[in-house]
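Please review this one:
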Amino acid sequence: MKTNKEMTGHLLAAITTFIWGTTFISTKVLLVSFTPIEILFFRFVMGLIILTAVFPHRLKGTTWKQEILFAGAGLCGVTLYFLLENIALTYTLASNVGVIISIAPFFTALFSHLFLENEKLKANFFIGFVIAMIGIILINFNGSMVLKLNPMGDLLAILAAFVWAIYAILTKKVSQFGYNTIQTTRRIFLYGVIFMLPALSVLPFKWGFERFLQPVNLFNILFLGLGASALCFVTWNTAVKLLGAVKTSIYIYLVPAVTVITSILILNETITWIAACGTLLTLVGLFISERKVKRK
């Protein structure tokens, strides 16, 4: 029987992955007028402003060791993850990136075993991982089964999954400080934006605020800033606090499945029977992994 805290954690993780699974639509729309680094910078600055407005109380009394963990989480979960993912998409197929990013729970499990003593894995986690990965592969290739390897792009996608796993471990450690989740998420965003600044001078970036006068751009950047960034990072970090890094990371399996469903409902895209089977396998893999990940 799951406790109320566990149920809350599972609900928050599910809500987060559902929203993240729909962000591809907003990103796709915004890429008409914005570059990837512009979308990334504006959404997290907006998220930082929103979190400050919602909970303006300043985070006080932190030690330099805690600040290092905050900075590491901002660097990995905000700056490096999204930059690596976006750059990878310019070198390799989106389907490749979608599959490779989904191995993040495996890295998270490995790091948790090494660095988090209260996280214990059973063999069924890895069985569920294999089943979910088969499903994710079927979803992303959607029946075409065309795999075009590109060493540079695929390596960047692997690195993105790697740094997200590091972010999961760091946020678990941050959650043990006992600070308010909104305050800690805001501090992580702050460091993420700071680390993003050097990239603005290297990658194509312009302010161009007149672009936000177009309702479609304003709506979608608000969705990414308010929903996918401010809200989702708070709910995700809360889920990590309640469930642990491994159990929460398993919900990443759901993102491709949500993407398929929303593309059918919103973009009127069709789904093949292979992609439907992939969605089912992903859910089965999630169930098996979640049921058998134990905590001491």
